[in-house]
Amino acid sequence: MNINLFNWFEQHHNYAYSFLRIFVGGALFMRGLLFISDPHKLTQLAGSEQFFWMYSYIAIVHLVGGLLLVIGLFTRLAALIQIPILLGAVFFVHLSKGFLASGQSLELSVLVLFLLIVFFLFGSGDWSFDMKRNKK
User: Fold this and answer.
1) Burial (CB count <10 Å: 0-12, 13-18, 19+), residue 18
2) pLDDT, mean of residues 16-43
3) How far is 29 from 78, CA to CA, in rounded Å?
4) Where do the TM regions start and end (predicted)?
């Protein structure tokens, strides 16, 4: 039984890639929802009105880009527009706090950044609208 299960997983390993894309897209979408659902928190994060536009942009990109990643539509573009945001999170927000900081930590941001780069380079995977669109 176990060998059959492992054989099935080996034959369908490409689904794991799609599951990762769906999970990361969903997580980024939820991050965007958190930013938009609490305008006070967004203002607090921005620190001043001059940065409010930047956090609004981040929220919108996470919402739209996350949703596109979940459904696998324009996956490379959805990943590409979020890479600069994650670079900013890694180098300007989390790097000074170091690894294993409380709350959102450096290693989580680096992991999401790495996965976005993978999705940008390799595309959406089998379970995606991109794949269905390319087959037609």
Assistant:
1) middle
2) 88
3) 11
4) 15-36, 51-70, 77-96, 108-129
pTM for the full predicted model: 0.84
| Cα atoms in the Cβ-side hemisphere of radius 13 Å centred on 102 | 0
* Average predicted confidence (pLDDT) for the chain: 85
User: Is the model's pLDDT at 49 over the cut of 80?
Assistant: no
Contact 33, 63 (CB under 8 A): yes
In total, how many domains does the chain have? 1
pLDDT of residue 104: 64
Q: Does 13 map to a domain?
A: no
Residue 68 lies in a domain: yes
Residue 47 lies in a domain: yes
Q: Residue 94: which domain range? A: 19-129
Distances (CA, A) of 89 to 6, 79, 85, 97: 38, 15, 6, 11
